[in-house]
Structure formats: structure tokens, C-alpha cells
Write a structure and sequence with these properties.
It is a single chain. With 150 residues, the chain is mainly α. The relative contact order is 0.17.
Length: 150
Amino acid sequence: MTIEFLAPFYLWVKSFHLMAVMAWMAGLFYLPRLYVYHTQIAPGGDESARFMKMERLLLRAIMNPAMIATWLLGLILVLTPGIVSWTSGWWHLKLLSVLAMTGFHGVLSKARREFAADERVHTERYWRIMNEVPTLLMIIIVIMVIVKPF
């Protein structure tokens, strides 16, 4: 199903979609790195409180709005005529990867609440590994959208 009315706005929607993706990705790259550093300091101090504030602002002021904009604009794009071939395999893997990225966002959000309670549920090593997740998903998404290998 597509909506003809959207066709003339395609390049505008695509431009704003890419800006939203970049803002969201910046947060997805940076927040786990903040968690790496946050796990290195003792709970309860001024330094921990500073990390809590940075993490909260990053998530609420940048990442959440950027994720919402990414999804809304992405949905508009797929409803634009001629943009997506619903039978192509690349589209399904790209969608699955975006859903995984959204799930990862949820993991980061839950962790922020744990850090806000001064809990250290995961180790520094865990967050170092998790810091690579958005990079892997980004690689898959970009290749699917640009190369469309299948």
C-alpha cells in the first residue's frame, strides 16, 4: 500500500529521516560509552550524579525524539510509491535490523534507570561489548538500503 500524495515530498522526507537517523545513531554510539565510564566510578558520589544527568539528557532530549522521528519519517518513506519492493529480501533484513536497533535502545533505556538508582547491573566489559552493537546494525542497514544485495 502506498500513498500517491507523498511522492512530491520524497526528497524532503528522506533528508529529515537521515538527519533523525544520524542523531539517533550518535546517541546509540555514545550512551554505552558513558555506561563504560559510569561503571568505573563509585555509586553515590558527585561524579556518579553528573553521569546520571548526562545519560538522562542524552536519552530524553536527543535519542528518544530522534528515534521517534526516524520511525515516523521511515514509515512515511515506505508508504511513498516506488520506494520499497515488498517482496525484496533486503527490505526484510533492514526492517529486522531497525527493530533490533529499537530493542537495543530499550536496553539502554532500562540501563539508564538502573544507573539512576545507582545500581551497577553490568560490568564495564559488558558495556564495551554492547558499544559495538549499533555499529554492526548500522553496517547491515546501510548495506541493505544502498546495495540491496538480495
